[in-house]
């Protein structure tokens, strides 16, 4: 089975101080401890290599470490940024991860330049906007055998971690059908919740009625008239429109028949084959109509008799 955190090419660099730290830890067999992560709005100056950096070029805010792990001589660190404390939106163009050096204290260890593909972080309270971003840095750790990261309490657990087969979980509310407090896995909880929600939607008529009311209130506007293809036409209005359409189609399909043949108006018009008469159709409307050889070929509606 493929590793969900398989190392892949990224724009992440281990800086010079990071390499020096690896040398120290390899000699002392110490642990590599990642202390925090941060994001910024800068990028490496022209002509400078990211490996020479000692900090972010334009620090903006700290990020949360949500997950980490090791694969061979590489480590991955998943960091998250949310809009919770952001008062003004900004573009993330750089990400850094910091580690503890036994001699210098906290140092920049890994740096990722995303200035060519930045991510915008919206201000807290922005309507209908994404308020969360996640970045994964892959960094070289060499022969260091022990890696520790300060995972931020309250960070959002990643999907890969939550669905991992070995992630232990507690069914505190008994949604799996057993006793509350039974042991399970993250994937087991997801499957049980999915099944429970689907069952609830199908069998709970009260919930379906409330959902229907919500859809009507949120989607039907302008006195229940559908205004565009994204809105919903109400059932009563649809029924009324259908009835009106049926009446209209009936009137269109029903041909008017001139059944009241009155006297000629002013006598026959010459050529011995053309005459003009007046009459009423089956709806009571007056018509003047022209006959050729006794057959009506043209009817002019909207006339009113004066006699």
Overview of this protein structure:
- Helices cover 22% and strands 34% of the residues.
- The strands form four sheets. Strands 1, 2, 3, 4, 6, 7, 9 and 10 form an eight-stranded mixed beta sheet that branches. A four-stranded antiparallel beta sheet has the order 13-14-15-16, with no helix packed on it. Strands 5-8 form a two-stranded antiparallel sheet.
- The chain has four domains: 12-158, no CATH class; 163-203, no CATH class; 213-254; 260-301.
- It has five helices and 16 strands.
- The chain is α+β, with helices and mostly antiparallel strands.
- Mean pLDDT is 71; it is low at 1-10, 219-224 and 252-272.
Name the descriptors.
alpha+beta; 307 residues; disordered N terminus
Rg result: 39 Å
Q: Kindly report how far apart the N and C termini lie.
A: 98 Å
Average pLDDT works out at 71
Count of distinct strands: 16
Described by strand count, sense and barrel closure, the largest sheet is:
8 strands, mixed
Count the domains: 4
Q: Give the oligomer, counting copies of the same chain as homo and different chains as hetero.
A: single chain
Low-pLDDT segments: 1-10, 219-224, 252-272
Task: Spell out the helices and strands N to C.
Answer: EHEEEEEEEEEHEEHHHEEEE
Q: So what's the overall shape?
A: elongated
Helix content: 10-25%
Estimated structural class:
alpha+beta
What proportion of the residues form beta strands (DSSP E)?
Answer: 25-35%
- List the total number of helices: 5
